[in-house]
Amino acid sequence: MTDLVHTAHHRGITTLTLDSPANRNALSAALVGELADALTRYGDDHDVRAVVLTHTGNTFSAGADLRDPPPPEALVELMRKIVALPKPVVARVAGHVRAGGLGLLGACDIAAASDRATFAFTEVRVGVAPAVISLPLLPRTDPRALARYYLTGETFGPAEAARIGLITAAADDGDADGVDEVLAPVLDGLRRASPEALAETKRLLTAKVLQGFDQDASRLTGLSAQLFASPQAREGMTAFLERRDPAWLV
User: Fold this and answer.
1) Model's pTM, two decimal places?
2) Are 179 and 114 in contact (CB under 8 A)?
3) Furthest CA-CA distance within the chain
4) What is the pLDDT along the chain (250 residues), one digit of tens a residue?
5) Contact 121, 100 (CB under 8 A)
6) Residue extents of the structural domains in the chain
7) The CATH number of the domain covering residues in 5-192
8) What HEC string does the chain produce?
């Protein structure tokens, strides 16, 4: 493991912490690779009952790293690994989540966020679409709400994220301690559960999500690659990096 992902263990719970402050934990090829390797390692560890996915800084993940993006196939593989892992994966969010980071959130089994967290599907604003991250999100999130937030790129808060099924619960307290209070009974429950029962129960819960991956991953990966290579995406990403409005703004 390098410094992009830190690991800690406590009473059967392994915590994986995203720590890439230079790009606000954006999903670079390196970060995606390291996180996938860690999930493989601890998914096979009999001493691990569950995995917590969290972050340093005020951003859980800013989405794809536009300077070093992972191939769409790598992001699909990472999200599928989270969904298919035989251990529950719990997202602990004490900051902002954007675009591809929401795919990680949607792949997790349980997610809690502080009341300072914000969420936005910003893909349309840089000329692409939330294609591959739809694989875990469409089966688990309110479709009318997704239509609004996918199409507009609006920012919304944790109460709305909980209402539409993007997260499990929103903490009342604004700091990370509030999220930990929400997750304390969750982690206690996971520690009390039989490992085999947890794995089988997770299979019941994720069967339809994995079916969607098997049916649609190739098509959505192709769509993502096509859009990222388009002239509008080049303009949108350049505008984002240069901190200016894109040419299509009216």
Assistant:
1) 0.95
2) yes
3) 57
4) 468 999 999 999 999 999 999 999 999 999 999 999 999 999 999 999 999 999 999 999 999 998 888 999 999 999 999 999 999 999 999 999 999 999 999 999 999 999 999 999 999 999 999 999 999 999 999 999 999 999 999 999 999 999 999 999 999 866 678 899 999 999 999 999 999 999 999 999 999 999 999 999 999 999 999 999 999 999 999 999 999 999 999 9
5) no
6) 5-192
7) 3.90.226.10
8) CCCCEEEEEECCEEEEEECCHHHCCCECHHHHHHHHHHHHHHHCCCCCCEEEEEECCCEEECCECCCCCCCHHHHHHHHHHHHHCCCCEEEEECCEEECHHHHHHHHCCEEEECCCCCEECCHHHHCCCCCCCHHHHCCCCCHHHHHHHHHHCCEECHHHHHHCCCCCEECCCCCHHHHHHHHHHHHHHHHHCCHHHHHHHHHHHHHHHHHHHHHHHHHHHHHHHHHHCCHHHHHHHHHHHCCCCCCCCC
